[in-house]
Specification:
By secondary structure, the protein is of the alpha/beta class. The protein is built from 13 helices and ten strands. α2 runs parallel beside α5. The N terminus and C terminus are likely disordered.
Length: about 350
């Protein structure tokens, strides 16, 4: 069935993207809607939503709509004597001539993307690689042809989905223009992976991560300090380091666990089956994980949940999207962890285990 013709400036923008893509003012393009797995016990992002694949025709129509906005802004810029440089005056004139854009959820995003250099794009929602390979390749080729200024295109992806793709499929997707995949590892501990209903084993994480790297993708792995609570902190730290060592991704990003009301993990906490780590206990877990981490990667704390403080009361770690280069800055990260532990003039009993 062919898609209905898109209305003018009617293109979809999803809700979620990695902080690094927001900081880069990336163009957000919705390839799928919501999450095809949607069973993780810690996550509330898509729980009330149904997963849907969008057609290549729909997505390419969205790309064309964005391109039309860009073209209109550039034409106005030339008319105003700005030589094609898109400034605020051009945006105001376009809004005045096309009032529907005042209510368009994506117009400000597109404007900010242009202002940032139109260099990056992020494919939404939770697992774009679940799309058929030829369809995703078609979309990527159209995106790259339409916006030749792009130097980085990224997407969320599940380890299991990547592992199930043939090497030649992954290579085709990479060659079509997808540069980086963001993967939710969460933990490398099989018992904890089962508890959170991640739908993949530690070995599956390793297989997916390594296949992505072999296909030429940059791989950004996310893990959750505190996810195992006081009951499973050691295995969580040690096995997460073990799995990351096997994968050796380009980026390792810390997303400290926070139980969200309505999720299974929150219910476990309320029932007394899960006991959260204190800030110092999280740092102790973090120290154990980092001590056992043997990678050539950038270790990042680029999220507000990495809230630990130094002696001066400021943030312990930089929130830079590029983080700390391992192994060169591993000793520095361990020094910062010790500073964070000493900042409260106490060391938790957990350190003595």
């Amino acid at each position: 069935m062919s898609a209905e013709p898109a209305q003018k400036y009617d293109f979809e923008v999803g809700v979620y993207r990695p902080p690094s893509e927001g900081g880069s003012a990336s163009l957000l393009l919705r390839i799928t809607r919501n999450c095809p797995w949607n069973r993780c016990e810690f996550c509330a992002m898509y729980k009330t939503e149904k997963f849907e694949l969008r057609s290549p025709a729909e997505v390419k129509g969205d790309i064309d709509q964005v391109a039309d906005i860009c073209g209109r802004l550039k034409d106005i810029s030339w008319k105003l004597g700005h030589g094609g440089n898109i400034a605020r005056e051009a945006a105001i004139e376009l809004l005045n001539s096309e009032p529907e854009l005042n209510y368009n959820q994506g117009f400000v995003m597109v404007y900010n993307w242009i202002q940032s250099g139109a260099g990056t794009a992020f494919l939404q929602d939770a697992n774009s690689l679940i799309m058929k390979t030829d369809q995703l390749v078609d979309i990527l080729q159209h995106l790259r042809k339409t916006f030749p200024t792009l130097n980085r295109v990224t997407s969320y992806a599940r380890s299991k989905t990547i592992a199930q793709k043939k090497p030649e499929e992954l290579q085709a997707i990479r060659e079509a223009g997808l540069d980086r995949v963001h993967i939710g590892l969460e933990t490398g501990d099989d018992e904890l992976l089962k508890k959170i209903n991640k739908g993949v084993t530690a070995e599956g994480h390793i297989k997916g991560g390594k296949k992505a790297i072999e296909a030429g993708f940059q791989v950004s792995e996310y893990w959750m300090p505190g996810l195992g609570g006081t009951e499973m902190w050691q295995n969580h730290a040690l096995n997460t380091a073990r799995v990351l060592n096997e994968i050796n991704p380009h980026y390792i990003r810390s997303r400290p666990f926070n139980p969200i009301p309505g999720t299974g993990m929150h219910a476990q906490m309320a029932a007394g089956q899960l006991h959260l780590l204190s800030a110092d206990e999280q740092l102790a877990e973090l120290k154990l994980m980092m001590e056992n981490l043997d990678v050539t990667a950038k270790v990042c704390f680029d999220h507000a949940a990495n809230y630990w403080h130094n002696r001066q009361g400021g943030l312990l770690f930089t929130h830079s999207y590029e983080g700390y280069k391992f192994p060169e800055e591993k000793a520095r990260v361990l020094e910062l962890i010790d500073e964070g532990l000493q900042a409260n003039n106490k060391r938790p009993d957990i350190l003595m285990l």
